[in-house]
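Risk register update: the risk that structure generation would not scale has been downgraded. Supporting records follow, first protein first.
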Amino acid sequence: MHLSKKIKFLPLVFFLCTSQIQAQNFTASSKDAENAISEQSLLYDIEFLTDSICNGRATGTRGASESATYIAARFRQEGLMPINDNYFQNFKTVNGLAGHNVVGVLKSNPYKGSDKYIIVAAHFDNLGELDGRIYPGADSNASGVSAMLGLAGMFKFMREGGRNYNQHVIFVALDGKQSSMAGAEELWRRINSGTMCSPVTGNIIRRQNITMFVNLDILGGTEAPLHQNRPDYLMMLGGRQQNTLLATTNKNYNINLDIAFDYYGSKGFTDMFLNRVSDQKVFLQHGIYSVLFTSGITMKTNRYEDRPEYIDMTVLKKRSWLIFHWIERVIQIL
């Protein structure tokens, strides 16, 4: 579909996904929140981020700026509040590139005045254009960003349906993953220096206020299943005491993904992906409980073949559902 037509049609897609929210006044059901997203809505986000206008989303390029602007508009659409009246955290990488994190907040129950926060993050940058070829990065990591926006939509459904939470959720689209995780480093720097303030309470968001960091990185692949003939799988690394909660949530909500708590059974690769090569590394290093959700690298990762048509949208939707339900329950525990 041509980009201009896709953008015009986008509001209709989200209207169809959320119209029943506006038509009813009820105490929201977590299972009903699954209807707040669709395969089509997830695909539209991926298609925009992989379109030529974003040109592979390399940090410091116009394509990355277009991506950040789009994500900020989607944050606004999902009712997320900007921090310091601005969705953007601008920074420079060590190479002098201009980076742009995009940050929005889902407020908790206002009557509890909570100063606890869970961060849900996904990096949006990719390799850009190399040797005349655009590296679209559909799985890495437009899939993670799309899922994160889907989570925001499901939480919006719950808030508008009457559900309150005792923690705020900070959604962050991180730039600079390909530049030594510069976006995650910038987010941490702002928290550690006390320069991020709650748009709800006005209080400084400090390190001790962060209860968990959840990272969504490469979430749309099905080419490397955990078990043969089970493309509907998901790995969660670093969950520790919350592993059992994910397993029971998977069963109780009848999502029934094939799940694992290590990287294909390898202790060494589990350690590498959790502690060294993705954005949660920055928060783990500073003692923040952090988890990584991923479907694992494939033969298309970091290649120009990483395009939307290779993502199984049904599986991505189910992964988004399970992560949403799990976070909803973790909010009540931590």
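Supporting record for the second protein:
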Amino acid sequence: MARERIGFIGLGNMGQHMAANLAEAGYPLICYDIAGTEERAPQGAEIAGSITQIAGSADFAILSVASQQAVTDITEEIAMANNRSVSIVVDTSTIGSKTAREAEERLGAAGVTYIDSAVAGASGGQGIGPAAAKAAALTFIVAGKTEAVEQVRPALEKMGSKLFHVGEEPGQAQAVKLINNFLIGTVMTATSEAMNYGLSQNLDMKSILDVINVSSGANVATSYVFPTCIEPETYDVGATVEILVKDVRVYVDEVSNGNLPNAVGSVVNKIWEDMGKEMPGEDFTRIFPFIRDGGEG
């Protein structure tokens, strides 16, 4: 049986690797990126000139974009397209539960099923962000109608190592992803502070990490980010500070709107916003020198 034709929208640091893995698995692709498609698309993929072209050419579409507004604009264009062939939109972006529910409502009114399918990096040393995307080691956190999820599952499993169908309601996967990224933001700030304390005691970073990573304080910062990107001072996880600034802010906004406890969240949010202002465009792993040099206070 011929494989479904996938429209892939967004070929940035994550999307270009995800699309490449689909192409390698033999899926026919038609791709579009507002910043330039041809140089980012996998070899052999068809190049689309617009979202509307994808809406009329693919069986389902996968989105991997950086902002809430981009998802709003793309889903509006798909919903308005004439002669539409796309019946399912799988959104791997991190946009928050409110934007995901709005996208579902917008597409649902046009007869298109929306699947909230936020992605996270892998545990166990397989990397986070682009490294996990390149290795097809992403974790897919999926919320949407079971029948539609099962239809796209084979394609998602070519891009990731784990898939969790957490609920039927789009927005639920976004909530899990926001929790995940808030925790990444929290452990990165806490580990940076803790490492600076350890260094002040004339300990070396590797010795500290060796102990912590077989002890109860181990986390993704100590097990992967610090030994891979911070101890060697490469600062190259491949995701900018703006990514965590946005994700932590959306988490804090949704928690605040729900009148839920937010004491830690408000502090972590301020630290990342301060870094974003002082070090725009930098890899988020530079939170360590930012805190070391007094930027948090």
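The mean pLDDT is 95. On this basis the risk owner (M.S.) recommends closing the item.
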